[in-house]
Lipoprotein (Silvimonas terrae), 532 residues
Amino acid sequence: MFKPSGLVTGLRLAALGGALLLGACGGGGGGDSNSASNSSSSTTTSSPSTATPTPTPTANACPSGTPVTATPGGSTAHFTIVSHPVCATGGKVFGLAANFFDDRFVPAAPVSNYGFPNPLIQYVNPDGSLDIAWLDYTAGGAVPSASGLAALAHVFITHVSADLSTSTTTDTGIQTYRLLGFTRDAAGNYYLAFNVDSTFKSSVSGNANNVNGNEFHVARSATASFASPVWNTTVFGNNDNTTKDSPGNPGEAGSGVLGFDAVNGYVVAYVSHLMAWDINGTRHQAGILRLLNTSTGAVQTPTGLSNIWEAGSGWFYSHNFDQRLIIDNGTYYTLAHGDAYSRQLGFSAFTPTSYQNFTATTFDQSYWTIPGTQGDNTTNAQTGQFIKLANGSFAITHTTSDTRTARDVRLVIANGSTAQNAGVTTNSIWLTANTGTTQAVTPKIAQLASNFLVTWGTWDSSSRTNHTIKWYAQLVDQNLNPLNTPTALSGVEFVAGLPLFTFPAGPNQGAVGWVSGNAGGSITVNVVQVSP
């Protein structure tokens, strides 16, 4: 791993005078650092900061709406999809038409290689009920709304009954610009990841501290209200961004995800961020993975090298435009969207031991090598979803236009269990053969009975201000053979980084689900069943 000389090669937002410039920067999946000293950046456990006021939370119960069939199913589709409108009170949920499209993005929002922090995130409870954290978009249309809000807004948690008939919404009391993760543990605790303003915040244009939400926080609460959290930890960002090794800007040009490791007792946070490697230096972008003690919220500081920010899990892929995480039996499997070091869609794994000893990953493999110049901020690709299979392998989806006529959906099987071949791709298939200006977007995958359900959208790129996405679903068998032609879906939408899931119990046991906003500013839970 090495640190380059401040290379600046691309724009994220073309129409802004103060557009973010991302330069290529060191950091693949771990390795040695050439820097000499530890960062003095804050890593503390604290009470909620003044930027996250905690008013008295409210909890409101209400019935759900009438379910609507999104596809006719039958012998052609082999599955049916029913959409359940869910009442969510106290604010407005992110909706695709209202909040996703940002015509200043380059590449355009639907085909952007940059991930978007999820504005709503589900947790699937063992009984088949759902808890859904969501950021209030009442003041939506903020610029850019898809990657966060321009002003602080409340985070709510809506509990949905297993039969999807009723819901109760609680105001957590947390306010943030970006929702960067949500999970629960078996004891019923709630965990939220979010950003808040730093005490170093500046209003001076062009100042490195002129950042909305420079601090990255993770908090734990025994209830859906975070008015009296068990802990609220500043993971990074309470620092002057003009200083050396000053991490901040969580969720910038990427996303964030939070998980719970029941085997080792850690909360696992994986998020994009920016950092200056030198005094008054360019703020480069990368991913960072951090473990927090479940009981105290203390960040588990990696050891083994002199700098915890410039290598290993502290500087994981650079640039790293999108983040995914699966925690399984104490191992943390990740997807990274690498633009420079390494320039690939990467599949990797960490353990607490590799994290602590600073060897970082137990494996780090490419499931798609991205052509082009390192750090040019354009990858012609989009990260999708990955799932762990019963045999220890992983199924991964992504899109790309490289080697294709237009952007297409690719499905990959990667080895996850054999030590000498861990992470290596063993099978792959292209599910689409788009032409002209038809571009595949937002691919996802889940296991449905003995097959895979794959969903994606198509967007016509002939007009970069086109605000219509057409959605499709298809069944694929375990050998990656399509079982039907793609089925068009009506009346549904998807959140770019939010995964499909399987109901573990309850009336929908075995069905695939996903959550999204809708045109009414509320929540929709979609349920996919195998056709009888």
Notes: The radius of gyration is 21 Å. The chain has a mean pLDDT of 88. The first strand starts at residue 44 and ends at 46. The helical segments are 96-100, 352-357.
